[in-house]
Amino acid sequence: MVLDVSDDGLAVVGRIPVTGQPNKMLLNPAQTRLFVALDNSDAVATIDTTSHGVLEQIDTTAPEQVFGNRKGFKGSNPNSLSLSPDETTLFVTNGGSNSVAVIRLDNEKHRHSNVIGLLPTGWYPNSVSLSRDGQWLYVVNGKSNAGPNPKACRDTLSIAPGSLNPCWAQNQYVWQLHRAGLLSLPLPNATALARLTWQTAENNGFANERGRRQVRRVMAPAPKDRSRDLHRQGKPHLRPGAG
Hints:
- The model is unreliable at 225-243 (pLDDT under 50).
- The strands form four sheets. This protein has a four-stranded antiparallel β-sheet with strand order 3-4-5-6, with no helix packed on it.
- By secondary structure, it is α+β, with helices and mostly antiparallel strands.
- The protein is built from four helices and 13 strands.
- The chain starts with a strand and ends in a 10-residue tail after the last helix.
- It has a single domain (22-155, 164-231), classed as Lipocalin (Beta Barrel), CATH 2.40.128.630.
C-alpha cells in the first residue's frame, strides 16, 4: 500500500500487488528502490518507488547450483533485510532455514539479482544489520532450545479455578524458556562464503549437498594398505567406452 503523508492526514494513493505476504521493507539511500521480504513466497521483491512497479523477484532459498528447487518447495521464510554500503549486496535472514542469504544485486555486469551464498545462523534468525563500514553482520536468532523444565508441573488433577496457578507461576512452559541470541560475524571472503554455503546446505539436507557428499566419498583417496592391494591386483577393468 502506498500512502501520501505530505498533508496532515494519510491518503492511500496506490497498491502494489506482490506474490507473498510482505513482512519487512527496506529503502535504498536514494529512496528509488524498495526491497520487500515476502515470507511465504521465499523471495524478495524489488520495487521502483516512482512507477510502483515490481522490477524483479529474487528467490532467497539458495544458489541454484546448491539447490535448484525444481519442485518449488517453500519454507525459507525471509523476514529481514540489510543493504551493503555500496548497495551491491543485500543480506536477507531466512528464518525457516536458519541462514542469511547473500544476494548480489543487479548492476552493469549482472543483469539479474541472485543468491551467491548462504551463512548459517542459530535458530530462526529474524533480524540482520550491517556495520557502518560494511565489514560486520549482526544477526538476531529469535529462538533457542528450551532446555529442561523440571518446575513445569501438573501435580494435581483438580479442575477448580486457580488450582494450577502455583505451577504456572514457575514460568517454565516451553515457550517461556526460549531465548533470543545475537550473532556477530565478519563479512566472509569468497572462499569462506563458499564453505559456509555448503555448511548451510548440509544443515538443511539440500539434495545437491547429498550428491556432493557422495562425490567426496567416491573421490576420497584410498587408505595406504588398500592402495597397495590395488597396485598388486593391477588396474581395475574398464568396460569398452568407459573412462
